[in-house]
Amino acid sequence: MIQSMTGYGKASAEFQGKKINAEVKSLNSKALDLSTRLAPIYREKEMEVRALIAQALERGKVEFNLWIEQTEAQNAASINGELVANYYKQITDIAEKYDIDKPEDIWTVLLRMPDVLNKTDIQELTEEEWAVAKSVVEKAIQQLVDFRKQEGVALQKKFEEKLDNIAALLASIEPYETSRTEKIRQKLVDALQAIPEVEYDRNRLEQEMIYYIEKLDINEEKQRLTNHLHYFRQTMEEGHGQGKKLGFIAQEMGREINTTGSKSNQAEMQNIVVKMKDELEQIKEQVLNVM
What we know:
By secondary structure, the protein is α+β, with helices and mostly antiparallel strands.
């Protein structure tokens, strides 16, 4: 079953009062084009994260983000109690010594004093935290893979529909193909008979007719196109990672359709060829998104 290169995944987990989040999204690309953004505490694990993504996703333009949301408890700044006590004593002593009234809102004054509020950020990554963060990364990646599989099912259904349409159009050429031989022959005979002075060898005329019709024969093109349609279906069943191969098969299908069009000397046949080209163009557009 084929997979799409388009996908999205997100996961999160709680660890010691903080929320660890991972988000990954991908679009189509000829190779793996990976960009990552990690919270500072996880930057030492960037190569490991990139390896996890590359192994699971293989191709696509991938954007990955790993960040932390701090809880209110974690965000709260700590109060230096000893320093507050020291500042309070100094203010009290000065007020008594110089007979000055202490501030009415003494707490507001104390909390504004230098270094009373200390907000500390823990930057050291422990093995326990990384185990949780890694699990979040893997879950986000798996979500994206599942998304790709779902999109792949839809793509394959679309391809099957277009392949069926091309096969049906190819079959619809046959009635025009069988009747055009007699039409070509009669047209040449009528043209020769319109010139009374001209005498022609009927045997030679038949030989020339055979040569002319052989040049317009499209049986080989029809057979090769049928083979390409079958090969496209078979390749889709081989699993993911077949996007480039499917693109090459679509190109070969286009060559056979174009050759058929160049040999078609009837308006009805040419109209059918145009419809086949339209169906194939839609396949080519979507195959760019297959992994």
